[in-house]
Amino acid sequence: MSIQEYNEEKPALINSIVCAIDILGFSQMIQESCEQGYGNNLLAEINYLINKNKSCIIPNKYSKGRIKIFTDNMVVAYPISGDAEQELDEILDNVSEYQFNLALEGLFVRGGISTGDFYINEDIVFGPALLEAHNVESKLACYPRIVIDDKTTNLLKKHIKYYDVAPQTAKVLIDTDGRWFLNYLNTIFKYYTQCSNEYEFERVQYALLLRHKNKLEEMLCDHSTNMRVWDKYVWTANYHNYFCDINFPGEKDLKIDRKLLLSWPRNIKSRDL
Description:
Blueprint: E1 14-23, H1 26-35, H2 39-53, E2 66-70, E3 73-79, H3 85-104, E4 109-120, E5 125-126, H4 128-141, E6 146-148, H5 150-160, E7 172-174, E8 180-182, H6 198-222, H7 227-247
Parallel strand pairs: 4-6
Antiparallel strand pairs: 1-3, 1-4, 2-3, 4-5, 6-8, 7-8
Helix pairs in contact: 1-2, 6-7
């Protein structure tokens, strides 16, 4: 089996797994920070967080994957060799970790994953797979989720059928609209390398989910008057609670209070007049 890679000297389209990612609300963050005089601070913080966490996407020098970042957008691509199972697994694992790490810092992302012809180098990203991944991100993702397009979903279904218990089934969920998306909270089960025993591993998982919960509650409160944005964090909070129900059913402290996820009407009071 030949190893595919993007040739810097002779550009050519290669069958690839491509992911396009966008940070939610980034334009508003830029505008508000510059108007209120802390634009440089935001720039420094965003630059630090992205550079700190992007290493999990292309984790070592032996990977043939490539990454390109421009402001709030990121493109990640892995050239496909063989049946694409290895490359798709890298996307599922590594992009999920990146999404999770940014969420813990209050940067929630949406994205799209596609498969097809693509090329990337230091100066250019090009190909129909990029167009489709961007289309999924901008038109179908809607919420802070990274959605897998139909072509790549069918590829993933083929890989899942290889196994009696497929490892991929824990890495992806299906939303109410039928779209498959990355189960990025599953990343908490990768942190075993930092732990010396099972109890310590469980405490790390608990602490990470609690950080995710606290950050979401903060975002829900901050955007409570902007229903369009607030609704996106409600979706993420429901996803968080579902994940906790499935994996930590006895840990009620990890779940986001339902009252934060509903919009209640009230009577007119004197302070409203």
